[in-house]
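Q: What structure does this chain adopt?
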Amino acid sequence: MLNTAIIGMGNWGRTLVNSVQGRNGSSIRFVAGTTGTLDKARDYAAEKGIRLHPTYEAVLADPQVQAVALASPHGMHAEQVIAAAAAGKHVFVEKPFTLTKASAEAAVAACARAGVVLALGHNRRFLPAVAEMRAMLADGRIGTLLHVEGHFSGPGAMNYKPGMWRADRHESPLGGMGAMGIHMVDMIIHLAGRFRDVRVLSHAAVSTTIDDTTAMLATLESGATCTFATLAQAPRMWRVALYGTAGWAALQGHESLTTCALNGTPTEQTFPVTDIERAELEAFAAAVAGGPAYPLPTDEAIHGVSVFEAMIGAAASGSVYAVG
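A:
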């Protein structure tokens, strides 16, 4: 059993805890934690059997804690990962991993030096429908990949208020990219490979806090093109689609995959609902225990940050930005 501390006990931190705490067969449990405003978390922590610490440093000094799960503001991640590695703690970190390629590289290097596992929380890699899309690319049912479409939107920014960290433009550059869009960037990398360059339009059409509309046109290293959008004040939508010379596949939501072969008829397949938060945490625990490596290589984690950083630059300059 991997004794873990939760860092950040807002909505998403609690989602992570709830996915495994007290569940039969779990190989990870949350025994400690800390958060920005401790009083807001005391009742929840007591209910879940989590010992609250006043600071992150106190968590790292707790000998019972073997690992940390970071659900903290994006700008804190790099320093928190490096500090955890120095303390010999394994690290599960929510997305975005960091906000710059240099800080992502430093965090990965710190974990490698310390010999601790580093896992990044891109939970949709664990969807069965995504595994099927990867299989279609591998076995030729898509043919030569020509184009990728991605869309991830939701209404979260409608509830943002001044003073909230997610409403801070430094923590949420390009609006919905930090909370939602970075997941789709990782999905495109996972399915179709690395990015070569990006062009981005991003603005606030209705929001008074952050950009609510962000759109990207990109070229992948394979030569395929890619379009992507994330809206921070719109009904929820998750969609990723692959288009090739032999067929196409479009996943809308987490379970509904529609495919079509050349000259064929579209066919819809429904996959079982999967607890992807539990899946990613169990995969983290398995990697710590010496099992299979966590299924998100650190070079891909760094590349995802590079894409995000390039998108920020492209939006600000109005030009094409190469991805480092």
